[in-house]
From TrEMBL:
Keywords: Ubiquinone. GO terms for biological process: response to oxidative stress. It comes from the Bacteria. Residues 97-117 are annotated as: Disordered. GO terms for cellular component: respiratory chain complex I. The keyword Disulfide bond does not apply. This is NADH:ubiquinone oxidoreductase subunit NDUFA12. It comes from Rhodopila globiformis. The lineage of its organism: Bacteria, Pseudomonadati, Pseudomonadota, Alphaproteobacteria, Acetobacterales. Residues 97-109 have a biased composition (Basic and acidic residues). Signal peptide: none annotated. PANTHER family: NADH DEHYDROGENASE [UBIQUINONE] 1 ALPHA SUBCOMPLEX SUBUNIT 12, NADH-UBIQUINONE OXIDOREDUCTASE SUBUNIT B17.2. InterPro entries: NDUFA12 (IPR007763).
Amino acid sequence: MNIGTWLFTKLRGRLIGTDAFRNRYFEERRLRPGALRQRRWVIYAGQPEASTVPPEWHAWLHYTTDAPLPDTGHRVWMKPHLANLTGTALAYRPPGHDYEGGNRARATGDYEAWTPS
């Protein structure tokens, strides 16, 4: 969080709650003149990673609900959260990607190139 976000949060923010990832959710204390609704925002614990926002808080942030949905807890069929690795060295790269050697297996007979007649 930068100094501007910290100052805005201290002066105008009201803490609504936190989630399992220790992200904190805020709402403006008062409605701005001419605004239709109060601003809502999240202060991430650690590096900003939007995929760590649980569905109940996502719905609240996007004004789908007026209050955060109740946390339903962990179900046995739920997988633990995995961080989005796109743009990092740990991101998935298919065979043939430049960083994976750049050589791809030749196409099989499942593709026929179009040629004009």
